[in-house]
Design a protein that fits this description.
The complex is a heterodimer of chains A (178) and B (318).
Chain A lengths: L1 E4 L1 H18 L6 E6 L2 H17 L5 E4 L32 E9 L3 H11 L6 E10 L10 E6 L5 E6 L1 H4 L3 E6 L2
Parallel strand pairs in A: 2-3, 2-4, 4-5, 5-6
Antiparallel strand pairs in A: 1-8, 7-8
Helix pairs in contact in A: 1-2
Chain B lengths: L13 E2 L7 H14 L17 E6 L5 H12 L3 E6 L11 H10 L4 E6 L4 H6 L5 E7 L5 H15 L6 E5 L6 H12 L3 E5 L15 E3 L2 H4 L5 E4 L15 H8 L3 H4 L7 E3 L12 H4 L6 H26 L2
Parallel strand pairs in B: 1-5, 2-3, 2-4, 4-5, 6-7, 6-9, 7-8, 9-10
Helix pairs in contact in B: 1-5, 1-11, 2-11, 5-6, 5-11
The chains are: A alpha/beta (178), B alpha/beta (318).
Chain lengths: 178, 318
C-alpha cells in the first residue's frame, strides 16, 4: 500500500479545483455542482462550499445515483449487486453549467452513466467533469476537465479514496489489486 | 473498484409473498424503492434499468389499479409490457395456467406478474417456468406489493414501524392485503390488530401474529395507523353482516370516530373505496388520509420489486 495523497494535499486540491472552475466560468453564468454517489457526493459538497465562499453566492449542490444507468446491470459478471439509492437534486439543471464530481476517473463508465442520468433530468448548458484522481485506463472516449491529481498506476492496482465524512480520514492510497 | 463492504445481496428471483421474507429483505426493498421515487418527477420519466426486458401482466382476475401500477412501473424502467387478461385470452377456451405460461415463455418473457383467484398460483408458476414471477394477488393468501407499499407509506411518514400500533379493519377473511400487511408490519416491529365482526375473521386467526378486536370504538384511540379494507361484495357468498348500514355503524371510519383518534393517525385504504360504507368521504379526503400517497408509492415499490428480481435473475443465470 502506498499513500498517494494525504489530508493536506486533498484540501489543497479541492481549493485549487474551485479556483480553476471559477477562472473558466463567466461571471453571469449559473453554475451548480453535482456529485456521483458516494465519494463524489462528499467531494461535491466540499467543492461547492469553496465555490460558494469564493464567488460570494450560494452555489447549488446535488447528488446523483447512477445505479439505474450502469452498463453492467444485466451482465452476470458484475460480481457485486449494485444498491439503488436516491438522487437528490433540488434545483433545475436546465441552462446551468454542471460541474460533475467523482472521486476517481478510470474507465469512464461511471461518467457515461452520469451524463445519461443528468440528461434525463433536463438540458444543462454544459457538463464539466471534475475528479480528485485521474488514472489511466479509459475504456470510453471521456476525459476530465478538472483533475486534482493525475497518475498512471497499472491496471492491476486499486486506487482507494478515503474521506473523513464516510471513512474517518482523508487519504488516497494505491493498493495491489487481487 | 470500491472495496467490498458488508453489502446486502438480494437473491430472490421471485416475489411470491411477504410471509417468507426476512426483516432485512423487506427493508432492502423499501430502501431500493426510495431511489425510484424521483423517476416520476424527472423531465424524462424513465430510467434504462430494464431496457430490453419483457414483462407480462398475466391477470386472471379483474384489476385496473394494480395492473396499471405494474404497467407504469415496468414502463418507467424501460421494459416492454404485454397485458394478458382472462377475457381476451385462450384461458377462456380452457387452456391451463401452466400452458398459458409456457406459451408466454416461448415468446421470451423475463418477468411474469400474475394475479389469480387460487391461493398458491404464483408459487406453482414459479416452479414451472424460468422467468421471474411476481405475485400480484393470489386468492385470499397474499398481495405482496400492496403490503410493501403500505409499509413504505407508513415508514415514509413515521421513519420506522417499530412500536407502532396498526389496526386493519373490515373484511379480513377475504383480504389478501390484510395478510401481506400483517406479515410485513409485524416483521418490521409493529403490532397489528385485526378489527371486524367475527363473521369476517379468517378461521385461522388464532395462529396469526395479531390480536383481534370486534370493537372499532375500543381501539380507535390507541392506534397510530388504521387501514380500512374494502367490503368485497363480489366475494361475499353468505351474508356476513345484517345490513350495510349496520356494518357502517359499527365499523365505518366516520368523522365522529376520527375525533377519538390520535391527532396524527395515518388513515389508509387499499382502494377502491366504498365511500360512506367503510369510510366517510370527509375522512377519505381529510388531512390524515394517506390514500393517494399509497397509490404513488405503489409505483416506486413495484419498480423496486421488478428491478430486484431481475437483478437476482441476472446473477443466478451465470
Amino acid at each position: 500500500m502506498k499513500v498517494l495523497l494525504n489530508d493536506k494535499q486533498i484540501e489543497r486540491i479541492v481549493k485549487k479545483l474551485a479556483e480553476r472552475v471559477i477562472e473558466d466560468t463567466p461571471a453571469q453564468t449559473e453554475i451548480a455542482v453535482i456529485g456521483i454517489r458516494s465519494r463524489g457526493e462528499i467531494l461535491a459538497q466540499r467543492l461547492c462550499a469553496e465555490l460558494s465562499q469564493k464567488m460570494g453566492r450560494e452555489v447549488p449542490c446535488g447528488t446523483l445515483d447512477i445505479t439505474l444507468y450502469r452498463d453492467d446491470l444485466n451482465s452476470p459478471s458484475g460480481n457485486s449487486q449494485p444498491r439503488v439509492r436516491t438522487t437528490e437534486i433540488g434545483f433545475d439543471i436546465d441552462d446551468k453549467i454542471i460541474i460533475l464530481v467523482d472521486d476517481v476517473l478510470y474507465t469512464g463508465r461511471s461518467a457515461r452513466a452520469a451524463m445519461d442520468a443528468l440528461i434525463d433530468l433536463g438540458r444543462p448548458k454544459a457538463i464539466r467533469l471534475a475528479v480528485l484522481v485521474d488514472r489511466q485506463g479509459r475504456e470510453f472516449p471521456i476525459q476530465s476537465d478538472y483533475a486534482g491529481y493525475k497518475t498512471d498506476v497499472s491496471q492491476n492496482q486499486l486506487v482507494q479514496v478515503f474521506l473523513t465524512e464516510s471513512d474517518g480520514k482523508d487519504e488516497v492510497v494505491i493498493e495491489k489489486g487481487e | 473498484m470500491r472495496k467490498k463492504t458488508e453489502q446486502f445481496v438480494w437473491t430472490r428471483k421471485h416475489l411470491l409473498g411477504l410471509r417468507q421474507l426476512t426483516a432485512d429483505e423487506l427493508t432492502h426493498i423499501l430502501d431500493t424503492a426510495a431511489g425510484f421515487e424521483q423517476i416520476g418527477k424527472q423531465t424524462v420519466k424513465k430510467a434504462p434499468a430494464l431496457r430490453g426486458k419483457l414483462v407480462v401482466n398475466l391477470f386472471f382476475e379483474d384489476s385496473t389499479r394494480t395492473r396499471n401500477s405494474f404497467t407504469l412501473a415496468a414502463s418507467r424502467l424501460s421494459a416492454d409490457v404485454i397485458n394478458f387478461t382472462k377475457k381476451e385470452s385462450s384461458v377462456s377456451k380452457g387452456e391451463t395456467l401452466l400452458d398459458t405460461a409456457r406459451n408466454l415463455e416461448a415468446m421470451g418473457i423475463d418477468i411474469v406478474v400474475i394475479r389469480h383467484s387460487a391461493a398458491g398460483a404464483a408459487t406453482l408458476l414459479s416452479r414451472n417456468i424460468t422467468a421471474c414471477v411476481v405475485n400480484a394477488g393470489d386468492g385470499y393468501c397474499e398481495h405482496p406489493t400492496q403490503g410493501l407499499l403500505d409499509v413504505y407509506t407508513i415508514r415514509k411518514l413515521r421513519g420506522s414501524l417499530k412500536g407502532l400500533k396498526i389496526a386493519i379493519v373490515g373484511d379480513i377473511a377475504h383480504s389478501r392485503v390484510a395478510r401481506s400487511d400483517m406479515w410485513a408490519m409485524t416483521k418490521l416491529g409493529a403490532e397489528v390488530i385485526f378489527v371486524g365482526p367475527p363473521t369476517l375473521m379468517p378461521a385461522d386467526v388464532g395462529r396469526l401474529p395479531v390480536s383481534v378486536s370486534t370493537s372499532l370504538d375500543e381501539i380507535i384511540e390507541k392506534v397510530d395507523v388504521i387501514n380500512m379494507l374494502r367490503i368485497q361484495f363480489e366475494r361475499q357468498s353468505s351474508n356476513p353482516f345484517p345490513s350495510v348500514r349496520e356494518y357502517s355503524h359499527y365499523f365505518g371510519l366516520t368523522v365522529d370516530r376520527m375525533k377519538k383518534a390520535k391527532p396524527n393517525i395515518i388513515v389508509m385504504h387499499p382502494g377502491p373505496i366504498n365511500r360512506g360504507l367503510e369510510m366517510e368521504s370527509e375522512v377519505a379526503d381529510g388531512a390524515n388520509s394517506a390514500i393517494l400517497q399509497q397509490v404513488s408509492n405503489g409505483v416506486a415499490v413495484r419498480m423496486a420489486v421488478l428491478f430486484l428480481v431481475s437483478q437476482a435473475a441476472a446473477q443466478t443465470n451465470v
